[in-house]
Amino acid sequence: MKEKTVWRINGFGPLVLILLLLGALIYSFVKFYFVLGSILTIAFIVISAGLHIVQPNQSAVLTFFGRYVGSIREAGFWFSIPFSISKKVSLRVRNFNTEKIKVNDVEGNPIEIAAVNVVKVVDAAKAVFDVDDYEEFVKIQSEAALRHVATKYPYDIFEENGSSLRGNTEEVATEIAAELQNRLSLAGVEVIEARLTHLAYATEIASAMLQRQQATAIIAARQKIVEGAVGMAQMAIEQLLRDKTVELDEERKVAMVNNLLVAIVSDRSAQPVINTGSMY
After folding, report:
1. Can you name the residues that pair with 256 across neighbouring β-strands?
2. Are strands 76-79 and 101-104 parallel, antiparallel or unpaired?
């Protein structure tokens, strides 16, 4: 099914004719011209049955005795095929919020996830005739697309390379929109945007995963501190040797590096020890 434009004309002309017919048929019955009055009544009913009002950003899908004859997408007052049944479909942009659903990510961890999808109907005929209820269809397919994409990514990654639901929200949202568009094309619905609105570990594992994230953060911070401490110790020794302030043999270099690393890496204030004697 594909939407097409139905024949129609401005409805104010037929409206004037309807008013004239109404006056004429009243006059006919008053004067007892029943035959003429009956004909005018039939004409009045036929013309009145072809009037349609279409609001802005709305489409009127017309069927005539079970056959789709076309749609009216322009807002206004129209006259079209008499006795055609009109079904109004909104073409306005709308938000659809999915419920929080529980799924397993690619690593098998249970997570809670939800999204908001911005959609609009672009083909009213498909929305009416190709699915039973396009709004319910959008709801079910939105949750199915979200569930499908969520199972392809881990919630979080603890290495530098790779994609995750938490770290790559733009990429995930784009994939959700593409997946949903493939599903909703059947119903004549266009997906404008998709965004995650909720993402969290499921309650039963949230505490354990928080501890894991904290441990990973501590390890990463310690790694940076060690790298900086090694660089500072190396710079100190190189500067002392370059300025020839003191003579450092290999054993003194090791001792100095050890003291500097302990002072910098320690998470507590270092206690200085003053050596008044010799190392030997």
Report:
1. none
2. unpaired
